[in-house]
Amino acid sequence: MPSSADADSPDGVLVDGDPQDDSRRASTIRDVALLAGVSKSTASRALLGQPGVSRKNLEKVRQAVQQLDFVPNQIARSLSAPSTAMLGLFLRNSEYPFYGHLAKGFTGEAGTRGYEVLTVSSFDQADEANYRSLMVLAGLRAAGIVVASPVVDPLTIRRIASQVPLVLVGQMGQASNPDVPFVAPDPDDGVVLIEHVTALGHTSVALTAVPPEQSPTQWVRIERMRSHLEARGIRHRLVIVEPDTNLMDVLSGLHQESVTAVLCNNDFIALDVLAAAANLGLSVPGDLSVAGFDGLPPLDHEALGLTTFRVPTAGLATAAVDLVHKLIQGDELESREVFVPGDLLVSRTTGPAPAH
């Protein structure tokens, strides 16, 4: 995309003939520096996230990058046409079981459609870094991009979606981006766990959760569960789990309040609750029933015996590939909101409520 500074460029950055028409070339790092009013080395350090760049100059470079649609990748600039053979997959954290299984399903399903998949993990980096990573995928001429990270800023999503077909997966969309399609687990899946333990006679239930900003999608599920408990008149407690939370203290307090079932926001927290119960001398499920959420290997193994709810990663991946493929083909979407239900896995950690 042309820059207003091109005509005055002293070092001949224009190529392919007429200096009044540079529409056939991609913007360069020099264009970014000229538009931002900084040196080329400063622009380069800013783009690479290196130290030594002031906040003011960093913002200037960021604005120039956005205005020029600059992609800091030489390979990307050498490509001139979109490739219908590649999809970009942007993950929050490939080390988490959910994202690993989602990537596996997505890659397999995309392969059946004739796509290669290029995967990038965010690891909860700053959003300006998310923007750069997504711009790289766009610049590499991905036919479409699937974003599996609920913490990417809506403005970044809007900017990328204006350039490349984009689908959100694993989250219930973004209120400020209603036109961006999404695929998400059924938010009422948690209600199934409640029905399971109430059928066993439990009338006092605790829910665990991480803070909402860490997992907006989980919070939607938790709110549905709380509403359901209130509608049923079931006494309940919400426990926010932080890195420094002492679950033995929490569980001891819940036991004193006669809470008999703990429904955890994920399987790892469920394992920590089971360990805390053992250290307190509480039997599971005799004194306390415990259930997890996610149900992904290996934590769904019968040797563990954990009652949990399996998130349908394969179904989410299939639906995401289907949506982004339709966007690429220009097909009309039946719905921009796709919910995929999971499965309850009942095992040894839940049982009848204690007699008292």
In short:
With 356 residues, the chain is of the alpha/beta class. The chain has helices at 29-36, 40-48, 55-68, 74-78, 97-112, 127-139, 154-161, 189-199, 216-232, 247-256, 267-279, 313-329, and strands at residues 86-91, 116-121, 144-148, 166-169, 182-185, 204-209, 235-240, 261-263, 289-291, 308-310, 337-340, 343-345.
Could you please describe the fold and organization of this structure?
It is elongated and about 75 Å long. The longest helix is centred in the middle third of the chain and has 17 residues, at 216-232. The relative contact order is 0.11. It folds into 3 domains: 6-70, 434 Repressor (Amino-terminal Domain) (Orthogonal Bundle), CATH 1.10.260; 83-186 and 315-342, Rossmann fold (3-Layer(aba) Sandwich), CATH 3.40.50; 189-310, 3-Layer(aba) Sandwich (Rossmann fold), CATH 3.40.50. Helix 9 (216-232) links the parallel strand 6 (204-209) and strand 7. The protein has a 6-stranded parallel β-sheet, with helices on both faces. The protein has a 4-stranded parallel β-sheet with strand order 7-6-8-9, sandwiched between helices. The protein has 356 residues and is α/β, with parallel strands linked by helices. The termini are far apart. The protein has helices at residues 29-36, 40-48, 55-68, 74-78, 97-112, 127-139, 154-161, 189-199, 216-232, 247-256, 267-279, 313-329; strands at 86-91, 116-121, 144-148, 166-169, 182-185, 204-209, 235-240, 261-263, 289-291, 308-310, 337-340, 343-345.
